[in-house]
Structure prediction request, 232 residues.
Amino acid sequence: MKTKIFEQIYKILLNNYQLQGWWPVTEYRSLHPQYSGGPTTDKQILEVIFGAILTQNTSWKNVEKAIVELNKHALIDINKIIAIGPPALAAIIRSSGYHNQKSKTLKEVCRFLKEHSLSELKEKDVSQLRVLLLSVKGIGQETADSIILYAFNKPIFVIDAYTKRIFSRFGLCKHDVSYDELQKMLMDNVFEDEKLFNEYHALLVEHAKQYCRTKPLCQECILNKGCQKKIK
DNA sequence: CGCCAGGGCCTCA
DNA sequence: TGAGGCCATGGC
Prediction:
């Protein structure tokens, strides 16, 4: 089994980067940099959901600005997002890119949350929640899984471009592996625990930013031992 | 200046 | 199902 490899990679990442404590939420940023218990209030959960949508194919720094703007306008609020006009909302989240599409998606997800309350969704199991989230236009597999894991604290492994890049370069999957296939591989080989899935994915993102970039820094990479795509 | 970023939808085979 | 085009801003 590949279980051991995934455990070893996790340990190396954790030793080097320490706990990431995702998901970053604005009101905790200054108070609890090491916060890692997951969102608790409905407002925190909502902010994580919004962040998961805003960060689609976009750097977190640009998203952060948009979230700060949303907070300034007191728009981390289901009813207010539903009430505001799409162009006005798009202008506020402009820095996150694709703002016209994301404006619509935010409104879609809020209409969805009006229909299925947070308290109702909290009671669902992972697969039920996933089906529901995927029915929202603008929410695909990765965004749905990010919401399940980081907003609802339920166990699922989020697959993103970084996850694919790191594991395919290392030699654990093909570079064009499908979302479902890689997710299954990870969930079959990493002990199923939402805390571990949370931290593992966050560490992968950090590693992809530091070393396993588009143009990788293989020489100093902490995972270069055993990596098949290592550039000498 | 070009490249890239914590994707997803639509269209067309 | 899957490849290709499209959406868009800001950091480096």
